[in-house]
Design a protein that fits this description.
Blueprint lengths: L1 E5 L5 H9 L4 E5 L3 H8 L10 H10 L3 E4 L7 E4 L16 H10 L7 E5 L7 H12 L8 E5 L9 H7 L2 E5 L2 H11 L7 E5 H32 L3 H8 L22 H8 L5 H11 L1 H12 L7 E5 L14 H11 L3 E5 L10 H5 L4 E4 L11 H4 L6 E4 L10 E4 L4 H4 L7
Helix pairs in contact: 1-3, 4-5, 8-10, 8-11, 10-11, 12-13
Length: 420
Amino acid sequence: MKITTIGLGYIGLPTSVLFATHGHQVRGVDANPAVVETLNKGYIHIEEEGLQTLYNDALQSNSFEATMTPGSSDAFIIAVPTPNNNDAHKSCDLSYVVAAVNSIIPHLQKGNLVIIESTIGPRTTEDTVQPMLEAAGFTIGEDIFLAHCPERVLPGNIAHELIHNPRIIGGVTPACTSVAKAMYATVVQGELIEATASEAELSKLMENTYRDVNIALANELAKIGLDLEINALKVIEMANRHPRVNLHSPGPGVGGHCLAIDPYFVAAASPQFSPLIQTARQINTSMPRFIVDSVNKLMASAPNNKITVFGLTYKGNIDDTRESPAKEISMMLQQSGYQVTEYDPHVDYATIDIEVACQDSSLILVLTDHTEFKNIAAQATNNMKQPLILDTKSIVQQHEATLLNLGNMHTQIGKIPQEM
């Protein structure tokens, strides 16, 4: 089967490579010439475990090409970004999806399959994409097959999970579901779950909303623990010994293109009936300010104003900084007048020597749970003005410094004023 993928980012590229290594001829399209050039030189442009090896296999079999323009295919996969609109509820910006669909319409032929993999608001496939294809003269479910098949993967393990995770196949009609299911069956070993397009859209959004709400509860507990001078992390550990309790871990905020974005799409679609979702978003977006206010208390008597930030990505062991609370916190600290050195072994512009990063620093602020941060060498902390670590991700295990986290930092800073 000939497949064209529109969008070669963190989902589009792995998806393209997986199909290309499972017997399909894939044309990958991206609007960024630098991305296309890098891929055509034989290198992937994102950090993802095992993907370069798979990409090498695709190139060796001549089953993948990168270009900036689509062409005729049997199937088209739309995997472009869907950021927030700048409106009251931060609804889904469909401009990239609409542009991608418009780009493939001149190449569509009867019998083609169109898949929307981009995360979109509820009813988008039926209310936005379907009318576009119908206006071009196609009958959905008869001569063009349309479905929403959202990705459900963990960055850092995408190649494995694209194959083994269950996959939702949300067709606009039963025939659309059947055709899309047949294509994914050539790659996916997990269960293929049949659904309507709208059910698939809302299911994907609620998977991430569930996690966002649970993280918000943990983050609220961290604030309560600081206010009451109780170790919130110990509370979570004990509560999770209950067989039916699974509290998540607090942190500096929620980032990435899933948890920090998707709940807004649900709230925007039904604002009157989503107060819990909206409150959870407010709690999680408040965490960077909470961390900065806590740092202000810790640094009140520090020997100097230098802070070393460990980690800029939104989660550990990847290079993705989209919607990263770590980047937001670093910027807020700099705007507050601190001398901030950024250290992240996964981000090109922050891969400095760790000893240089910590030289004369009064605080190491850990904001990402990279594996490299489990053990902080004595050579790094020995050169600090004040050997103090605030670990907001509870990742640090070995160190030679005073270690604080979101459970015990009340022992050093006490309560934070109510205006937080």
